[in-house]
Every structure is written in C-alpha cells, then in structure tokens.
Amino acid sequence: MPSAPLIPSHDPTLLFVNAGMVQFKTYFLGQEKSPYSRTASCQKCLRAGGKHSDLDNVGHTARHHTFFEMLGNFSFGDYFKKEAILFGWELLTKWFKLPQEKLWVSVYEEDSEAARLWFDFVGIPEERIVRLGARDNFWQMADTGPCGPCSEIIIDQGNEIGCGKPDCAVGCECDRFLELWNLVFMQYNRGASGALTPLPRPSIDTGMGLERISAVLQGKITTFDSDVFRPLISAIEFHTKRTYGRDKETDSSMRVISDHIRAIVFLLSEGLMPSNEGRGYVLRRIIRRASRHSRLLNMHEPFLYALVGSVVDLMGDVYPEIVEERERTEKLLKIEEQRFETTIESGMTIFDEILSRVKKSGTDVIPGEEVFRLYDTYGFPLDLARDIAMDAGLKIDEEAFHREMEVQRERARASWVGEDEAVASIYRELISEIGETEFIGYETLESESIIKAVLKDGKLIKEASEEEEVEVFLDRTPFYGESGGQVGDRGDMTGERFRATIVETKKPLDSFHSHFVKIKKGKLRVWDKVKCRVDSEKRMATMRNHTSTHLLHSALRSVLGDHLKQAGSLVSPEKLRFDFTHFSALNEEETETVERLVNEKILENLPVATSVMDIKTAVESGAIALFGEKYGKTVRVVKVPGFTSELCGGTHCKATGEIGLFVILSESSVASGIRRMEALTGNSAFRYLKETKFELDSIKTMLKTETPVERVERLLKNIRTFEKEIQKLKTGSKDLISEALKETRELKGIKVVRVRHDGLNPEELRTLADNIKDRLQSGIIVVSSVSDGKAAIVCMVTKDLKDKYHAGEIMKRISKLAGGSGGGKPEMAQGGTKEIEKLEEALDSVYDIVSK
Ligand code: ATP
Ligand code: MG
After folding, report:
1. 54 CB less than 6 Å from ligand 1?
2. Does the pLDDT at position 418 exceed 50?
3. How far apart are the CA of 469 and the centre of ligand 1, in A?
4. What is the average pLDDT value for the chain, to the nearest integer?
C-alpha cells in the first residue's frame, strides 16, 4: 500500500499520521472490511505537536525525528503472533544479515506466549528476552476497542554508545539499545468496563523506522550519519561554510535543520500553511526552530528554502508530491523565514542577555514577565523561548507569562480597535478626500462646524436617523481625540434637524478626528452645519489629571532618579495611571515625598505654558520626549517653569492651582521592572478623602473609641484566643472523650474505639482522635464526623500495634466501603466520603478487620 498523506483526512482528533497503522484503523476496528487480508507499507509519519511528539528529542538523541518513514507489515485477521515474529526475524537476520547475538527482544510481561515463541522457534537465549510493563509494551488505540501486547526487536550497539551507566539495559532512554521494530499483537477487545475479551480474528500491526534500520545497516551509530541524511547535511555544510563532525553544537544544529527541513517540505507539499493554530502552528514552530538553529550557524538571511531542492532530489522519486510542489514550497518557506527574521532579530539578542543574566544569578527559572515583554515588543514567541531555555538547561515561569498576557488582553480590549490594516486604509482614503480635521480644542470647548463625512460600519453613508450610531468627521472640532494616553472627549452635537451625543472621540490618523455619535432625535446629513460642545466637567477633570501626570513624572524622577522613564500612561476624567521603569517597589517614605512634592507645586500655582517649536529646539531645551513615540517635525512642549517640560499633545490646566489636590491611590508592579501608580485629583481626590474619613468616623462610633486602631488590634487578639478555646472545647472536652471511650470494644484483646461525632472539621476530628488515643494508650481508633454534607474519617493505631495493623490499610477498606477514598501511614490515616448513608456500616467494618 502506498503511504497515506501526513495530514489525516477524516480524523480531526489526530494532528498528523504518526504510524503505519493509521490508514488501516477502520479495518482493525471492524468498521470496514479490508479488501485484502495482509499488506505492507512505507508510511510518512510526523511526531511533532500533540500527544505523540518527539520534537524536543530531535538533535538531542541519535535516533529521533519529527518526520520519518515507518515500514510495516499488517495482518487483518490473517497470520498472527508466531508468523509475525518469524517474519521479523527472517528479514533482519537472513536478508539484512544483522548479527543475531546483538539482537534483543522485549515482550509484554504477561505475554508468556510471545516469550516462548522467541525462545522455542527463534532460539533467542532467555537472557536476551526482556519482559516490560504495560507502559512500554501494551498497545491500545483508545480506552476501548482492539488492543494487545507488543514485542520489540532491539539492537545492542555496544557499551561505548549511550549513557555508559552500569545498569544500562533494554528500555534505557539512551541510544545504546536501539529499538528497531515494534510488533503489535492485536488480540483483545477492551470493553467499557475495562475487561479484555479475546478477538475472534486477532491482527498484526508492525512498525520499523527506515532511518534507524538504514543507519544500522550502514554501520552508523546515528540516523543522521546514514545516507538518508548525509546529503542534506552536506547541503547545509555547503551553505553555511561549516564542517560537520568538528564540534558538538554545530553538529546538533545541523542535525536539527536536516530533520526539520524534511518535515517542512512534506507538510508544505501537502498544502498546509504556517499559521497560529492547530496543524499550521506545528509547522510554524518547526520552521522557527529550524531558523533559530540557522542563526546558531551564523546564517542571518533566509536559507532553509535553499535546502528544499536537496530534499526533493533525495526523496522525490518516491514522493512525487514534493517534486510537484517544489516551487511553491520554496516560496512559502522563504516568506515565512523572512517574517521570522524581522520579528526575531532584536528579540534574540535581548533574550540571550536575559539568559546569561539568569544563569549568573544561580537560579534556573527565567522570569515570565521578561519573556512576555520580549513577546510583546518583538513578537518573540514563547515556544521558541522555551526551546532555547531548554537547550540552556533553564525553565521559564510560564504562569507569570500568561498572567502578563491576560493583563495585556485587558488593555487591548480597552484601546482603539482600528489598528487593523484594512480599517486604517478606509481612513487614509477618507482623509485624502475630505482633508484633515482642524483641532481647536486647546483654546475652546465649543465650535460651529460642518459634517464632512459619515461612516457606518466602515462604509460611507449620506444620512443617519434617530438611534443610529455613526462616525462623524468635521472640518474642525473642539473634541480631543484619544491619544498620548489621554482619553477622547465626550459631549453633544446639534444641527438644525437633529440632536446627538458624542460618546467617544478617536484619532485613527494624525490630525483626523472621528466622532462616535449617537443620534437622539431627528436626522443627520452630510454637509449639515452643527454646534459642538465638549462636556466641560469631564474635560476639566481630565486636564487636571494630565497636568498632574507631568508633575508626578517629574516628582518621581527627582525622588527616585533620572533613570526612570515613562512606560505607559492613562489620563481619564476619573483618575490617572502612570507606569514607569523602576526596579523596586517604592517605600512609604518615597511615596509620601512624591505626593507632597506634587501638592507643593499645586499650591505654588505655577503657570502651565505650551508652545510649538521644531523638535530639535525642543529636545535641546531639555524637554522630555517619550522613547518609541513618533513625533513630527514641529512639536508641542508643555512646561511648568522650573519643574517639568515634556513633549505632549494633550490638554492641560492653565496653572497648577486648578488641580486643587493630588492623592496617590496605589503603587504596584505591572511587569518586572515596571511600576504603576494611580492617583486622583480635584473633586475625585476630595471625594475620596471625604469617603475615607466618613468610614473612619463610622468605625469610631461603632467601637465607641477615638483610637480605633488600638481597639481593633485588641479585638483581633481576642478572637484568636477564642478560636483556640472553641477548638479545645469541641474536641477536648472530658465528656466527649469519655463518651467515646465508653464505646470501646475489646476484640482479640485489642481495644477498638469507633465513634461518629458530627459537626467537626477534619482538623478538629484529628485532634479528637489524638485526645482519645492519649487516653486509650493502646488500641485502634476510628472516628468520623459529618459536616457540610461530607464525612471525614480518621483512623489511628497506637505505636505498639502498628506492626500488626496498618491505619492506612484500614482506612482504605473503610473509605472504599463508604464509597469514598482515603489512606495514610501505619499509625495515622485520613479519608472521607460524600455518601453519608454508607458511613455507619463502613465504620462498623473496623470490628471485622480487627477480629479477622
Ligand atoms: P522510541 O521509544 O525509540 O521513541 P517508540 O516506542 O516511540 O520508539 P513506536 O511508536 O513503537 O516507537 O514506533 C515504531 C518504530 O518507529 C520504532 O521502533 C522506531 O523504529 C520508529 N520510530 C518511532 N519514533 C521515531 C522517531 N521519532 N524517529 C524515527 N523513528 C521512529
Ligand atoms: Mg517514541
């Protein structure tokens, strides 16, 4: 049978075909009848991604590949175990002439039949027949269905190969005992209950790696030295101008590339495209991994695509699909390599720095925040970072990485949606048609304007009516469009025939304001004359927060040092949020100094001056520009003389006194090396302090004291004492213990106490058992308590009896009878169940256990 495609056509549960039997699955399952009773194949296999992945092994072992070819012979209810064994042996020893004394076999530990066949009919000495457990040598397709034991044929490559440990044996992870061929004897059907019933017509499925048998036949220790790979490695040598076989690192990279290029060629030839999910993602990962190793060989331009021809030359006569698709494969691969180059170039250098820093610091965990930042700024993918980290013997704190990712998603949700290229092009077209918007919002909050265009769902329309939501573009506007961290203005717009609310203002392009308008009444038309009015209360609050942000920035720099840089900022009417680079948390004193400094500047009522100048003059005058921000030739500088000067397009107070009041709400960490401060100003700050005071006053009244802190401390201390007291009362009361001891029964001279006392939590139950044990001195105790619909059980065995009775074992029996679970040590065990109705009888079973 010819090979089936790598991409399984009818099986969405399987990423890629990973064994020869996949295309015969329906025959083995009995869903379809095979037109022939026996067959053989050479199947393209891929073991990368998904459950069955060898990706991380490639380059590290001498025998694993992502893409490989599996030779197999199959019987569908025809020949069985004996023939399969004899066929395998005949091929390897008679035709391939492998030395018999180096061959070992493994069988499933319960499959004595196979062991006997190897011994009786093949004549392998018993010491070279190894019995292995189900993990290695029992095969099943799924939880139910056909399954059976396997038997592997293994070649001992000699003790100079592999780990060299004295206990190295068949089954060792190293390369010495090389598994060549796996014979699967499908002889059972596993039912839903897990029971095995013999199949009426057992079948055979076998698999032998072509790369492995080739290497062995050619006397090579690794598959990479066989003629399946050597021509590819030569091609890599040619392109990289490096020599294979001189140093370990170079060899390893060459091996990875020679492996991955085959997988890439075959996957692309089958029409798969690199993407960000599913199969396409596995392909992308393989390409990126190969690209990374190219870089390790000093190849900084796309070059993998140049190897496609070598794969085609080598394998094209067997797999015509790779010949037909050659050109397309090269093109796609080159594009993907280029894409990767640009996203990765800078990230790689930075990641290398992080690696060496982490290594020096003596830990083996790379902070997830840093990896995230790399991902965020350079598109450096996590899996690539993971691969590199693994090679360097380090781990990544992936939990932290995903936490950062979530934060980022939140942020993205809140920000402008129009980044999408397609959307941006709509605006670019529009601005060239109707021209820029004149922004007059620095001087005034009102205007008379003309509607120049209306967009709805990305399409131009002429008019819009009541309740509709549209984007409106004006000739001039007082509305500030969201940018530089400052949110957009809101307000209203009225025309002769309509009334509308502006719910949001954005700036999809420089000097191009888009007003998100909801029509309240009437009809709005293009060319209407309109009156615009910004919601001045919100705008003033926003200005207070923006000017305060500049004061805060400067105050932070003067308290913490000039190394500090702005890393992000949000200015809304409600509050301000400022992210900045700094390596440690601020202590109370620093926070207070910053807060005081800002308030001092507010009280000084300094003028806020804005001026427009060319960027050179601005920077020379010492104005702070934000790193990574794009500025035009002329810029606007916002300055509070003697304190701060920044490039900024935002709207500001005329003097600092307008801010009124500044209160820091919180200081926290957003990512490693980045802190975040949130603060309130003006009315919000006043309201916040007022509410806080109101709450404090209420507490004082409630506690009837002027010193509430002391009072609460005392109360908390009391509560802790009470809690301890209660526990003692619940579990240590003389009554409870004597009650329990009354229940003591003596069986075979051993005292057994079995009590149920509901309402205790597991910890209290343990204390109760301990207390009983102390009084009992010698015996077995089983106590149980039901609370919240669950029963907890504790069993204790006193020391003198622990050789005879095992608390853990007793618990296993009891909890099982009770329909729950449990276990533990010889002297103490715990368990529980939700099936309360079974509890009493289960507890009683302790008597049986002891008397037997
Ligand atoms: P190993 O333990 O070496 O990973 P396996 O038990 O996973 O092998 P099987 O699933 O039984 O292997 O596959 C059958 C045969 O296919 C193996 O005996 C081996 O010759 C070959 N093979 C399996 N995985 C790979 C691989 N990643 N690269 C090359 N050949 C392989
Ligand atoms: Mg394997």
Report:
1. yes
2. no
3. 61
4. 91
